[in-house]
Specification:
Elements (H helix, E strand, L loop, with lengths): L5 E6 L2 E6 L10 H15 L6 E6 L17 H19 L5 E5 L2 E3 L1 H8 L2 E4 L4 E3 L13 H9 L1 H10 L3 E2 H6 L5 E2 L5 H13 L3 H13 L5 H16 L2 H11 L19
Helix pairs in contact: 1-2, 3-4, 4-5, 8-9
């Protein structure tokens, strides 16, 4: 996969998708949006992908969405945002664990990208900011959906209204960040976590992710039906058959998080 604004590499079931506009702090312009729209369906359909790391080049994660410089009508601007959501929806619903490795600024849409991931690992240099109010905008790229679900409504209002920068320690206290690592350890920690997840029951984890996301806007009966469907699919997956045989043979299970604790630093 060759792109102008992205790089992608994959090894041992772990993919690394890098936003690659370091001179612009990896801001999302129309070309990057188009390329994300191309790569996300490919990652969705990649059977050999077990987990995805999302990061930025050059000591920054993503400084937000870059304006095109063209005067857009309200209809055109609405369509632009809708185009962004085509690939964001693929990212949010990717049935593989997604880890954001954040070093430097995650501002505006970059903050939203981190929120759209399953786990966020950061360095002490990371800064998160819903910068939109500073220029009279509203949070976009699903920030108004994701942020209150992670930090709660009152804190989401604080973050969005003030448009203040949040450091890594506060982001961890707010449950936005899972772990904080030194800059020279960030990608190693992200790879370690991704490999542990990629070695797991990919089908089951994908079904769990889908179910948890759907639970926010589904009633009890719908979730019961989804659970029954998901369990029937998980039961038929090869991973389950292997795990069941290991159990019967009194062998260690292949996926045992507690047994591998410490291999990715903090847990």
């Amino acid at each position: 996969m060759t792109y102008e604004t992205l790089t992608y590499a994959q090894e041992d079931g772990v993919g690394i998708l890098t936003l690659n506009r370091p001179k612009r702090r990896n801001a999302i312009d129309d070309e990057m949006s188009r390329e994300l729209g191309e790569i996300m369906p490919r990652l969705r359909d990649a059977d050999d992908l077990g987990a995805l790391i999302l990061t930025g080049a050059g000591g920054g994660f993503c400084s937000g969405g870059e304006q095109s410089g063209k005067q857009l009508s309200p209809t055109q601007y609405r369509r632009r945002i809708q185009d962004f959501h085509l690939w964001l929806n693929e990212l949010m619903n990717l049935e593989k664990p997604v880890i954001a490795a954040v070093d430097g600024p995650a501002y505006g849409a970059g903050f939203s990208l981190a929120l759209a991931s399953d786990f966020v690992l950061a360095t002490p240099r990371a800064r998160f900011c819903m910068v939109f109010a500073r220029i009279g905008f509203v949070p976009d790229l699903s920030a108004m959906y994701l942020l209150p679900r992670i930090v709660g409504l009152q804190k989401a209002k604080d973050i969005a209204f003030t448009a203040r920068a949040i450091d890594a320690d506060e982001a961890k206290a707010l449950r936005i960040v899972r772990e904080i690592h030194a800059p020279d350890r960030l990608m190693d920690a992200a790879k370690d976590l991704a490999r542990r997840l990629a070695d797991g029951p990919t089908t089951a984890l994908g079904l769990v992710k889908n179910g948890l996301v759907q639970s926010y806007h589904s009633d009890y009966r719908t979730m019961v039906e989804m659970e029954a469907y998901a369990q029937s699919v998980a039961t038929s997956a090869p991973y389950h058959a292997d795990a069941l045989q290991r159990f019967l043979d009194k062998k260690p299970l292949a996926y045992d998080w507690d047994a591998t604790a410490g291999t990715s630093g903090k847990n």
